[in-house]
C-alpha cells in the first residue's frame, strides 16, 4: 500500500487555503467591530461588514463539514 502523494498534496493545499481564509475573514470582522465602536463613523456599515465576515467564516466551516461527512457530500454535492 503506497501513499497517493498527489491527493495528499491537494488536501494539504486546500487545508492551508481554507485556514487562511477563515483566519483572515474572522480578523477582518473583529477589526470592523473595533472600528465601529471606536470611531463612530459609518457604525452601521462597519457592523454589517463585520457580521458578513463572520457569516463567511460560518459558510466555510459548514462547507468543510459537508465535504467531510460522506452522507452530506452525497446528498448536497452529489459526490
Describe this structure in words.
The radius of gyration is 17 Å and the shape is elongated. The chain has 79 residues and is mainly α. It has one domain (5-77). The mean pLDDT is 90. It is 86% helix and 0% strand. The protein contains 3 helices and no strands.
Core attributes:
79 residues
Q: What composes the largest sheet?
A: none
Count of the separate structural domains:
1
* Shape label: elongated
Distance between the termini: 25 Å
Helix content: over 70%
Q: State the total count of DSSP E strands.
A: 0
CA-atom Rg in angstroms: 17 Å
What are the segments in which pLDDT stays under 50 over at least 5 consecutive residues?
A: none
Strand content: under 5%
- Let me know the average pLDDT: 90
Number of helices: 3
- Protein structure class: mainly alpha
How are helices and strands ordered from N to C? HHH
In short:
Helix content is 86%, strand content 0%. With 79 residues, the protein is mostly helical. The longest helix is centred in the N-terminal third of the chain and has 34 residues, at 5-38.
Write the SSE topology.
Blueprint: H1 5-38, H2 43-68, H3 70-77
Helix pairs in contact: 1-2, 2-3
Amino acid at each position: 500500500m503506497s501513499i497517493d502523494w498527489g491527493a495528499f498534496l491537494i488536501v494539504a493545499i486546500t487545508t492551508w487555503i481554507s485556514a487562511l481564509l477563515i483566519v483572515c475573514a474572522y480578523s477582518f470582522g473583529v477589526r470592523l467591530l473595533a472600528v465601529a465602536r471606536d470611531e463612530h463613523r459609518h457604525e452601521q456599515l462597519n457592523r454589517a461588514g463585520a457580521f458578513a465576515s463572520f457569516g463567511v467564516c460560518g459558510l466555510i466551516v459548514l462547507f468543510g463539514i459537508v465535504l467531510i461527512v460522506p452522507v452530506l457530500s452525497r446528498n448536497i454535492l452529489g459526490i
